[in-house]
Design goal:
The chain has helices spanning 29-41, 58-71, 91-98, 111-114, 116-124, 136-153, 166-178, 203-214, 216-226, 261-276, 292-309, 312-320, 322-325, 337-341, 378-382, and strands at residues 19-22, 51-55, 81-85, 103-106, 128-131, 157-158, 181-193, 201-202, 244-247, 252-256, 282-290, 330-331, 344-355, 367-376. The two termini are 18 Å apart. 42% of the residues lie in helices and 21% in strands. The protein folds into 2 domains: 19-158, Rossmann fold; 166-382, Dihydrodipicolinate Reductase, domain 2, CATH 3.30.360. The chain is built from 15 helices and 14 strands. By secondary structure, the chain is an alpha/beta fold. A hairpin with a 4-residue loop joins strand 9 and strand 10 (252-256). The strands form 3 sheets. Strands 3-2-1-4-5-6 form a 6-stranded parallel β-sheet, sandwiched between helices. The chain has a 6-stranded mixed β-sheet with strand order 9-10-11-7-13-14.
């Protein structure tokens, strides 16, 4: 979500840092720190990067910097990396951090509980804010509440800058650019592969899913308040697939992707259409899950999950015992380094449209295209 149309930074030149990673000692934050350190040391940036890590514990932050240095084969990251103490529950400390940087990269989730104070501090103090959130309620709620003020301040608030939903959003744009003609519809299919160590996910992701599915009614109300301009359907209408279906292209079953990809891509297409008069692209997001056995397991687990999220006591059980209710896939410790090193994803995009010179308003699509986006597992990709 681009929340401002101003100067793109809003920060005064004398601010000591260009970037602060907030929540740097968290599970995903540590990988973000590693990637920032790699970029800063790689010589690809214009000049030295002035950056800092921020969180509640100096000891944990120092440990994260030491880990990043070790992963990069360095003795230490050096004094150029600042260490700032702040707490998401302490508005004054958040404001102090925001005043010291041009950009805050927020890794503290679930964002529905901990995200808004960071956005507010950034907007109030002239710093841009990006996050790795995959929670549509939070993303669209922040747009409704802070869009105008961020524009006045000349700063940006941009969500979903990680695995959710850069591969999907940029993949659609890449597919559009590669088609010789007018792209009108795209479906994406996500496939995650694990190595010999298997795979699992951190319970922070699980919590976001639990509370997100429980709050679908409020999301619909929120979208009514925003009043999105309807995006016209150009070309043949993209048919909606079933909740579970057999995918002939991959010879396995697929389900709808329940994350933020659909929401983010739709809002990007809405912006491109209304602001830049570009042809909007219809989009459907799916996940490949495997054979019939996987479908049966998922159906039973899904029914049980959906029943529990409807009630407060059910949500407490789900978030207290993620490993039990997810059959070991979501854990409080998250995946090991070996598991992450062996995990990768492929997102395949199937697009259709109209050749150059053909009016998309008439006839059926006559050109197709297939593209792929590949990368490491979700936590490394988010960094």
């Amino acid at each position: 979500m681009a929340a401002g149309g101003g100067g793109g930074g809003g920060g005064a030149p004398e601010r000591p840092y260009e970037l602060v990673v907030f929540g740097a000692s968290g599970f995903t934050g540590q990988f973000v720190v590693e990637e920032v350190a790699r970029a800063a040391a790689g010589g690809e940036l214009r000049g030295a990067l002035r950056w800092a890590v921020a969180g509640r514990s100096r000891e944990k932050l120092q440990a994260v910097l030491e880990r990043a240095a070790e992963r990069l084969g360095k003795a230490a990251l050096g004094a150029e990396v600042g260490v700032l103490l702040c707490d998401v529950g302490d508005a004054a400390s958040l404001a102090a951090v925001a005043r010291q940087t041009r950009l805050v990269l927020n890794c503290v989730g679930p964002y529905r509980f901990f995200g808004e104070p960071v956005v507010e501090a950034c907007v109030e103090n002239g710093a841009s804010c990006i996050d790795i959130c995959g929670e549509p309620q939070f993303l669209e709620g922040m747009y409704l509440k802070y869009n105008e003020k961020a524009a006045e301040k000349g700063v940006y608030v941009i969500g979903s800058c990680g695995f959710d939903s850069i591969p999907a959003d940029m993949g659609v744009l890449y597919t559009r650019d590669k088609l010789k003609g007018t792209l009108t519809a795209v479906e994406s299919f996500l496939k995650v592969k694990s190595g010999p160590e298997g795979s699992c996910a951190h319970d922070g992701t699980w919590k976001s899913a639990v509370y997100g599915l429980a709050d679908q009614d409020n999301l619909r109300k929120l979208r009514k308040k925003i009043g999105y301009a309807p995006v016209p359907v150009v070309g043949a209408k993209l048919k909606s697939r079933g909740l579970v279906f057999y995918n002939q292209e991959f010879k396995e079953y697929s389900i709808r992707f329940m994350g933020s990809d659909g929401s983010v891509v739709k809002r990007s297409q809405c912006y491109l259409h209304t602001e830049l008069q570009e042809t909007p692209v219809q989009y459907g997001a799916y996940v490949n899950i495997g054979g019939l056995g996987s479908v049966i397991k998922l159906m039973f687990a899904g029914i049980f999950f959906l029943l529990l999220v409807k009630f407060s006591f059910g949500r407490k059980l789900l978030t207290k015992y993620p490993e039990f209710f997810s059959a070991g896939f979501f854990t409080k410790k998250g995946p090991t380094q070996k598991q992450m090193d062996g995990t990768s994803f492929t997102m395949t995009f199937f697009g259709e449209g109209y050749s150059e010179g053909q009016d998309p308003q008439y006839g059926k699509p006559n050109v197709k295209i297939c593209t792929e986006v590949k990368g490491p597992g979700m936590y490394v990709s988010s960094s």
